[in-house]
Every structure is written in structure tokens, then in C-alpha cells.
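Q: Second attempt. The first request was missing the SMILES, so the protein and adenosine-5'-triphosphate are both included now.
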Amino acid sequence: MLEIKNLRVEANGKEILKGVNLEIGEGEVHAIFGPNGSGKSTLLAAIMGLPPYEIKEGEIIFKGKLLNDLPVWKRAKLGIGLAFQNPPEVSLKMEKLLEKIGKNGLQEYVEKLNMKDYIKREINKGFSGGERKRAEILQIAAQKPDLLLLDEPESGVDMENIYIISKVINELLEKDKKIKERKKSAIIITHTGYVLDFIEAKLAHVMIDGRIICSGPPHEVLKNIKENGYEECKKCR
Ligand SMILES: Nc1ncnc2c1ncn2[C@@H]1O[C@H](COP(=O)(O)OP(=O)(O)OP(=O)(O)O)[C@@H](O)[C@H]1O
Ligand SMILES: [Mg+2]
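A: Got both inputs this time. The predicted holo structure:
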């Protein structure tokens, strides 16, 4: 579904991604760990095509199509959706946006995510941190993309709501289907790995200083990070 080759990305003259390689198959969920400022969110922004991130070298290929020069809206239409780490405020009622995205079965998700009162309000205006994260999941549920880019979906979310959003994400990822029949993929950035107790990931990658320096089974990688820290990850490189 997604192939990233030797990706180098800059923002405002600063090199952030320094040669990222990553392949994600249909139906696969991959996790990304890494210290603050290592380039995780930048990678998702580059896949989505957000400014001010500029591709200096390399390729992002989605379903066989080169994305490098496509605008954000075309990437969204092709089936890529991003749930932001820090969701921005937008001067538009959420229900208006959801109407525009306009996929069926949305009411069900509004109820599951307890967002009934919030969709009447402007997007994220005065929302608490956890409410913003839930609003992101609702918006991505409306879009039903083939590739979900989830930037720290559980950060700042209370335990009960982590369970609720994980359930919705699993539905969007067709986790109820047999592995071979699943068509949806995801990249999940997480610091604690807590969300991976609920959403099964195939592989985890560690990003340090703009490069993926190691990959492996998610719970094993997480255990190593917890026990030895990222410094040891660097040595392993
Ligand atoms: N628009 C920008 N202009 C200049 N520097 C930027 C810009 N966006 C990101 N950076 C820098 O690039 C580096 C990577 O940022 P990024 O947000 O991708 O990190 P991250 O791995 O997601 O970190 P965190 O775990 O804190 O979310 C940081 O040092 C950040 O300050
Ligand atoms: Mg980030």
C-alpha cells in the first residue's frame, strides 16, 4: 500500500528526515517510536503533503502512485487520512465538515465516540485535549481512508476513552475480518505503546534523528526501549 524510499525532507531550511525507508502492506498496522523531535510527525506530514515540509529526495508511493507532487486534497481522495498530534482549531462547525466528508454510517460513530454535543460546535474551539483527540478519530471515521496516519492517538486521552477510540480504530481497520481480507493499513505513532495493547500492530520502527534505525515486533521493541532507553537503540544501529 505504501512505499517510502530514501525520503529526505526539509522544513524552513532545516533537514528533518534524512533518508527514511518504509514499506507497509495492505492490511498492516505499523507503529513508530522515537524520542521527541526525531521526525515522526514530519514523516506523517510528508506522506499527507502538508506544508511547510518539502521533499528534497526520495519517493512516496501509495497504491503504486507517486505522491511527491500531489496536493493534500488529492492524497485525501486517494485514501490517506491523518489524525493530528495537535489538532488545530477551525472556524467551522464540526457537523458542517462531517457533512462535506459525507460518508454513510457516521451517526453510529458520533454515538460511539460520545461526540453528539461537540459536533454542534466549531472544530476544537474550547475542546479539552482528550476531546480534540476524539474529534480527530470521528473525522477520520467519516473519511474512512485506506491508510490511517495516527499521530499519538492516545496522548492525553483518559483510560476509558482510549478503549473507546481503539475500538473505533479497530473497526476502521477491519480487524473483525480475517487477516487476508483486511485492506486497511495504518501507521500509529506512540510514545507509551499503550494503544498497542488494544490495536495489534505487525511491526514497530524506531526513528532517531530523521532515520528509522531499527524495526521489530512491537512489544519486543517497546520492552527494549523501556529497559535500555533510546541511547542503546542508537548503539544497536
Ligand atoms: N515547520 C518547521 N520548521 C522548523 N523546524 C521544524 C518544523 N517542523 C518540525 N521541525 C523540527 O523538526 C524536528 C522534528 O519534528 P517532529 O514534529 O517531526 O518530531 P516528533 O518526532 O514528532 O516529536 P514529538 O515526539 O515531540 O512529537 C524538531 O526538531 C522540530 O522542531
Ligand atoms: Mg510528533
